[in-house]
């Protein structure tokens, strides 16, 4: 049985490629009116051509641009039923630049989009789905800034859920493992750092990396009536990667 989001208004922050793109298209194919934002204008144009109702080039590190996207999207779609906070600055190393990217995009874009959408979500008794990572569930020597901000998103998801339950708003998160798609981090690692790629691959029991659509399906579930009694949870989508 497929999902039916006919008549629902869905906002996807960071929707131009990879997991965000799969989420935006998943909602659109399920009948929702979708708005997506990101910095990548070409990716957004492709989404528009595939049935996404509204797109807006947006620097998600810029508070004013985040608020402007939410308000324009809500006006265009007629409200907001679902907000998906998917954007990441991919700040990896333990450096000023890495921490700034993660805090500005992964954290503050999530906070700012949630705040901007809240009046609309209250009116609709809608829900929020945040994208975090399995990196946020433990320490990381290779990507300490990324892991730390993703852990923050897991904690913030639970805090949001506790605070917004009185308004009838559910908040959950998906924590993907290693996901491969054209132009993505793991496709680049396969070419540039095959030792790392093969080490990660060897740790996934199913013998392959995940696909964006496999994460999108869980995001759609969390936004659907099937998850109506689920809130404050982070669902791992990693093909067993954390089991090894």
From TrEMBL:
Q: Which GO terms describe its biological process?
A: fatty acid elongation
Q: Which InterPro entries match?
A: NAD(P)-bd_dom_sf, SDR_fam
Q: State a single Pfam family of this protein.
A: adh_short_C2
Question: Which molecular function GO terms apply here?
Answer: oxidoreductase activity, acting on the CH-OH group of donors, NAD or NADP as acceptor
Gene3D superfamilies on file: NAD(P)-binding Rossmann-like Domain
SUPFAM superfamilies per record:
NAD(P)-binding Rossmann-fold domains (SSF51735)
Name the domain of life this protein comes from: Bacteria
- Bilayer-crossing residues are none
Which protein family is named in the record? Answer: Belongs to the short-chain dehydrogenases/reductases (SDR) family.
- What this protein is called in its record is SDR family oxidoreductase
Species whose genome carries this gene: Neoroseomonas oryzicola
């Amino acid at each position: 049985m497929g999902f039916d989001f006919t008549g629902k208004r869905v906002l996807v922050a960071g929707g131009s490629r990879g997991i965000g793109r799969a989420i935006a298209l998943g909602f659109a194919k399920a009948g929702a009116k979708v708005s997506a934002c990101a910095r990548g204008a070409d990716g957004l144009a492709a989404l528009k051509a595939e049935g996404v109702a509204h797109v807006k080039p947006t620097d998600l590190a810029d508070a004013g641009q985040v608020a402007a996207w939410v308000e324009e999207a809500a006006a265009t779609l007629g409200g907001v039923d679902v907000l998906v906070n998917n954007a990441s600055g991919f700040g990896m190393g333990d450096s000023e630049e890495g921490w700034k990217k993660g805090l500005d995009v992964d954290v503050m874009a999530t906070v700012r989009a949630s705040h901007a959408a809240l009046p609309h979500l209250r009116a609709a008794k809608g829900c929020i789905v945040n994208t975090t990572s399995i990196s946020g569930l433990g320490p990381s020597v290779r990507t300490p800034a990324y892991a730390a901000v993703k852990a923050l998103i897991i904690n913030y998801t639970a805090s949001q859920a506790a605070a917004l339950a009185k308004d009838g708003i559910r908040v959950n998160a998906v924590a993907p493992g290693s996901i491969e798609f054209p132009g993505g981090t793991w496709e680049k690692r396969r070419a540039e750092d095959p030792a790392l790629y093969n080490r990660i691959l060897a740790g996934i029991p199913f013998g392959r990396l995940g696909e964006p659509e496999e994460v999108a399906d869980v995001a759609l579930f969390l936004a659907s009536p099937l998850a109506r009694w689920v809130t404050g949870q982070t669902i791992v989508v990693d093909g067993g990667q954390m089991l090894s």
